[in-house]
Amino acid sequence: MAGTDRGDLTRTAILALLGTVGPLSRSEIARELDLSPATVTQLTKELIGHGMLEELDLKPSRGGRPAQRLGVVGSAGRALGVKVTADHLVLVDVRLDGEVLGSWETPHDPAAPDALDRLAAAVESVVRELSAGPPLLGVGVGVPGSVEDQAVGTVRAPTLGWQAMPVGERLRRRLDLPVLVENDVNALAAAERLYGRGRTHRDFLVLTIGRGVGAAIVADGRVYRGARGGAGEFGHLPVDPQGPPCGCGARGCLEAFVGSAGLLAAAHARTTGRTPGTEPPATRDPLGAVAALGRAARGGDADIRAVFAEAGAILGRATAGLINVVDPEVVVVLGEGTAEWPLWRTGFEPALRAQLYPGRRDISVEVESWDDTSWAQGAAALVLATPFDAAGAAGEQGRLVRARLIGAAS
Ligand SMILES: [Zn+2]
């Protein structure tokens, strides 16, 4: 296979190194990758010629000549990220260096018989609108479910009503672009690996709170996917067999307590004196309803403050269990629910610290800023990470992304 010769692998390794640790000199690249200086000089010359690397500032050195550092060109490529939800799509156009060039939102019914055709049509209409600039490398799709192989892209997502939906295959055929499909929390972890914690940590957890509860495990610099792409279903950690019913069919899962529907049910029970889970209030906008609870709590409603603190404590205990098992360096909390994090935190912190294994009690839990396009940015990162993915986790579609990057530049 011409596209995967030694030179291609080495070029990818150089991009991977610079894309994940930032600019380095040629001699630093040679040392890190155990390559000869001549090889590094030759391959970086090609990458500069392709417009993928650029020479940056001179790094001062003790004695001798100062070394010229090389960095990845942020405008060498772009990707479209798509987040699929139960009622709409968010699309975002992102450059190789993570800069967001544009975003779009459109209603979408995943249960419609032609849902995938409509999804493809939404992507096509955005592709037609793209401004001049970096070449489009591919499309990343984030879904709230499990994806057996991100390059094949067959999705199982109960909340979308998808059993074995051939998302990747159908979109690729229709769009004639590389398409990578992945669980949405794993996609966020890919973005963290590329632009966030991955620059300084090789082992970290990403937790998401919002409608559901999710986790992604980054172990030794890679997102751990499990045997069938289902790793990280933290929301279905059993908490209480007598607990409220969960969307997965079981009872008392973590998500049934601390997902938005669980929070609303707990608030309803506390304010009306009913048993939790007996009559969950129906709402078409659970995240909006939780935001309203947040306003009530910040306004001084002690009952609602207690609901958030209790949810925080349940999440804190469960998170301690996950940390004890996985042993990450840091935990990053993301998702729509982080808007109310100060309310969660009062319950979360003591419950977490009390349950952590000795020696890990000082682990840092960091909450990052969040906006409506964050999920879609994660999906774009699936594509943007592949030029830096020396291990080839994205398979054939990743190879096609790299071919487009090099083809566009040469
Ligand atoms: Zn469940």
UniProtKB/TrEMBL annotation:
Domain (HTH marR-type) ranges: 10-54
Family matches, as PROSITE patterns: ROK
InterPro entries assigned: ArsR-like_HTH, ATPase_NBD, HTH_MarR-typ, ROK, ROK_cs, WH-like_DNA-bd_sf, WH_DNA-bd_sf
Pfam families, A to Z: MarR (PF01047), ROK (PF00480)
Family as reported in the entry's similarity comment: Belongs to the ROK (NagC/XylR) family.
The name this protein goes by in its record: ROK family protein
